[in-house]
Specification:
Blueprint lengths: L1 E9 L2 E7 L4 E5 L8 H9 L15 E9 L2 H9 L8 E9 L4 E5 L2 E3 L1 H8 L3 E4 L3 H4 L3 H12 L2 H26 L1 H21 L5 H13 L1 H17 L4 H15 L5 H29 L4 H20 L7 H19 L1 H43 L6 E12 L2 E10 L7 E2 H4 L2 H18 L4 E5 L7 H14 L4 E5 L3 H4 L4 E10 L2 E8 L2 H13 L5 H17 L1
Parallel strand pairs: 3-13, 3-14, 8-12, 12-13
Antiparallel strand pairs: 1-2, 1-4, 4-5, 5-6, 6-7, 9-10, 10-11, 14-15
Helix pairs in contact: 5-14, 6-14, 7-13, 8-12, 9-11, 10-11, 14-16, 16-17, 19-20
Length: about 550
């Protein structure tokens, strides 16, 4: 519930702070005084679009602060967005500068406008003065029905199912529409894969092939060189090993005369071991190597195949294995897309599921339409429309994300006549009353604690206006209701009364709001009745109107 509203440098408001009570509060004032300024300020608090025009002329920025007591839905939203309360109150602040840039805070923490809009939906519900015009639009009628019937769960399921169906339908349409192109691409991939599979390239094989090719290409030189090396090391007549052995023997013998020579002899022994180990390594390599010309021809042929395919498919030899894998995956995907029967079956299953959830939505809507029509019809009798009735017709529609039907509001202006579309038969006054009846009914069901009615009583008067006042007062018994009105019959039903005044101070136009008590309220009601000239008789009528309203309540 709204508890405090403070404005600074907003439109033509210099500085204003209001404590807001429970119950039914009315806002009145002369035309152009700025009655809707408070509503505009609250719209900004609710995440409405910011505009530089709201900044009072000559000021840097407009500042709006609203405090609320917290309800369960609001508390849950704050917790979900990690905006925890320090106490039971909630403060929202929004500023707008001269360039139209705005900032918003919730309990001192900066938030986005979208977050502000989500939070606002848990706090205040605004019924604008042009709601009766929107009532003529089919989409608005359907939204009213959905809100009243509480179809959110079913509507969400329909929208998700519709998206799945459209996706399946597109795959089917693409497969059938592009069948020739897909077939040509699949054929091209098939022969590419066939050529590549003959080679069957493997990852990292190209590097190994290059190394083998280089080695095998110089096989004769390698064999001759290793043979000469082995003969020099260990297998010849005069080998490095025998020469070192002779030197080692000589030094070993001489070490009897000088012990220092033993270290040199030990070094030579190590050298002999290394030379003999090298000889054994050369010998093992010669025994195991495949340096024959037949092996070279095999490797050379494979290298040539790599080069041939890399030129053919315009890619690097080392990437042929990757081209093969990608081509197989793409062909598999195209083959799946070409399976029209499978796609047709998938599309049918998706459509069947859509029809199922759309049917559930239609049933909920049908039940809701009957109840909403009955409730509005009952309220219309109280709004000087005796015998009138509202019917809500659900008309089949091509399937869409909003279901398989649209709705149409049908009205019978009095007893004994058939209902006809609202847009064709309702006058401006009837539209206003029907809209108000719907607003009262839907507002009674909404969990939002604060309801605002911005001149929704336009187009009515007399006894009907009195009924409207009592309806709004009744709403105020269970929640907070603020109403901008120009009707004395409605204003007299308020628990609290604010007058919006416009004045000139130092050649500047300012607007202010004054809570009225007792005689001030009587005078304001009299002004609403008579205009400029207020007589004693008018004051008496005003006082009687207030007393009568509260007696009936």
């Amino acid at each position: 519930m709204l508890t405090t509203l403070s404005l600074r440098d907003f439109v033509i408001v210099d500085s204003l702070s209001l404590d807001v009570r429970r119950g039914f509060t009315v806002l009145t004032g002369e035309t152009g005084a700025g009655k809707s300024i408070l509503i505009d300020a609250l719209q900004l608090i609710l995440g409405g679009r910011a505009d530089a025009g709201v900044v009072r002329e000559g000021c840097e920025r407009a500042n709006i602060v609203a405090e609320f007591s917290v309800n369960e839905r609001t508390s849950a939203w704050l917790t979900a967005n990690e905006l925890h309360l320090e106490d039971e109150s909630l403060m929202i602040r929004r500023t707008v500068d001269q360039k139209g840039r705005s900032r918003a805070w919730v309990n001192g923490v900066a938030v986005t406008v979208s977050q502000l809009r989500e939070l606002g939906e848990t706090l205040i519900d605004v019924h604008g003065q042009h709601a009766h015009q929107s009532l003529l639009k089919p989409l608005y009628q359907l939204k009213l029905l959905d809100d009243h019937a509480k179809t959110e769960k079913e509507l969400t399921a329909v929208r998700l199912s519709y998206a799945d169906w459209q996706k399946a339908k597109k795959l089917l349409d693409d497969a059938t529409a592009n069948a020739d192109a897909l077939a040509e691409k699949a054929e091209r991939l098939s022969w590419m894969i066939e050529d590549l599979e003959v080679l069957s390239p493997k990852k990292d094989e190209w590097e190994t092939l290059n190394a083998d090719h280089s080695r095998l290409a110089h096989g004769v030189a390698i064999t001759d060189g290793l043979g000469q090396t082995l003969e020099a090391l260990t297998d010849g007549d005069e080998t490095v090993s025998s020469t070192l052995s002779a030197a080692h023997g000589k030094l070993t013998s001489l070490s009897r005369y000088d012990e220092k020579l033993a270290d040199i002899a030990s070094t030579l022994a190590t050298a002999i071991d290394l030379v003999e180990e090298a000889g054994r390594d050369v010998s093992r390599y010669l025994d195991r190597c495949d340096l024959d010309s037949e092996r070279f021809e095999q490797v050379d042929r494979r290298v040539s195949q790599y080069f041939e395919l890399s030129r053919k498919f315009r890619t690097e030899p080392e990437l042929l294995w990757e081209l093969l894998e990608n081509s197989k995956r793409e062909l598999e995907r195209l083959t799946g897309e070409k399976d029209v029967d499978a796609l047709r079956k998938a599309e049918k299953n998706a459509r069947d599921e859509y029809d199922r959830v759309a049917g559930l939505l239609s049933k909920v809507r049908a039940d809701g339409a009957k109840k909403l029509a009955e409730a509005v019809t009952e309220e219309m009798q109280r709004l000087a429309m005796k015998g009138a009735r509202l019917e809500i017709s659900l008309i089949p529609n091509p399937p869409s994300a909003n279901g398989a039907e649209h709705c149409e509001f049908l009205i019978a202006g009095h007893a004994g006549v058939q209902t006809r579309p609202l847009i064709k038969v309702a006058s401006g006054g009837e539209l206003a009353r029907i809209s108000l009846a719907i607003a009262v009914i839907t507002a009674a069901e909404t969990p939002v604690p604060t309801l605002i009615f911005d001149e929704v009583d336009s187009g009515i008067g007399g006894a009907t206006a009195e009924v409207v006042g009592h309806l709004l007062h009744k709403l105020g018994e269970s929640r907070q209701v603020l109403c901008v009105t120009h009707l004395p019959q409605v204003a007299s039903c308020g628990d609290s009364h604010w007058r919006v005044e416009k004045m000139t101070v130092n050649e500047r136009t300012l607007s202010t709001v004054k809570p009225l008590i007792d005689g001030e309220r009587v005078f304001e009601i009299a002004r609403m009745i008579a205009g400029v000239e207020i007589s004693k008789k008018t004051l008496d009528v005003a006082e009687e109107l207030i007393q009568s309203a509260h007696v009936k309540q």
